[in-house]
């Protein structure tokens, strides 16, 4: 079973994929670019291919934009890509709770995946995304 999820970005950190969701203009590509600067590897920008392998959901580059990431006001940057098991969904939203009591769950290909809402407009966003991966992401 395989599916292309549009309008998301996806970055691997330490072998685990973070699927980044949010409304247009919330900074999905900008967060992905900042995570690349912190040692992450691009899986997909503006889409990701998801497939089930045993108990895992694997994120792979989408064929139509493989190896490209949008750098707003600059253009498309070519970068190497990778694939990795999905560990967490990061939702960029202005409604993110300041001190949540846990995390939500998203269903991807029928599998539950931890989901954390983050406020998008902060310079600490890549640090928060990494902390969410470490605290709540699947191993």
From TrEMBL:
Write out the coiled-coil annotation as residue ranges. none
**Keyword Kinase: yes or no?**
yes
Q: Where is the signal peptide?
A: none
Q: Which domain of life is it from?
A: Bacteria
The reply on keyword Transferase is yes
UniProt entry keywords in alphabetical sequence: Kinase, Transferase
A Gene Ontology molecular function term for this protein is:
kinase activity
Annotated HPr kinase/phosphorylase C-terminal domain ranges read 10-81
Q: What is this protein called?
A: Serine kinase
Q: Which organism is it from?
A: Aurantiacibacter gilvus
What does the organism's lineage look like at the top? Bacteria, Pseudomonadati, Pseudomonadota, Alphaproteobacteria, Sphingomonadales
């Amino acid at each position: 079973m395989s599916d292309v999820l549009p309008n998301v970005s996806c970055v691997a950190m330490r072998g685990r994929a973070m699927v980044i969701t949010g409304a247009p203009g919330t900074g999905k590509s900008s967060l992905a670019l900042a995570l690349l600067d912190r040692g992450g590897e691009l899986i997909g920008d503006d889409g990701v291919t998801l497939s089930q392998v045993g108990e895992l959901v694997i994120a792979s580059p989408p064929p139509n934009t493989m190896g490209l990431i949008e750098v707003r006001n600059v253009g498309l940057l070519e970068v190497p890509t990778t694939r990795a098991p999905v560990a967490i969904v990061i939702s960029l939203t202005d409604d993110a709770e300041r001190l949540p009591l846990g995390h939500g769950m998203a269903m991807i290909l029928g599998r539950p995946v931890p989901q954390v809402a983050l406020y998008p407009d902060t310079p600490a966003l890549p640090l928060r995304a990494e902390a969410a991966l470490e605290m709540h992401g699947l191993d």
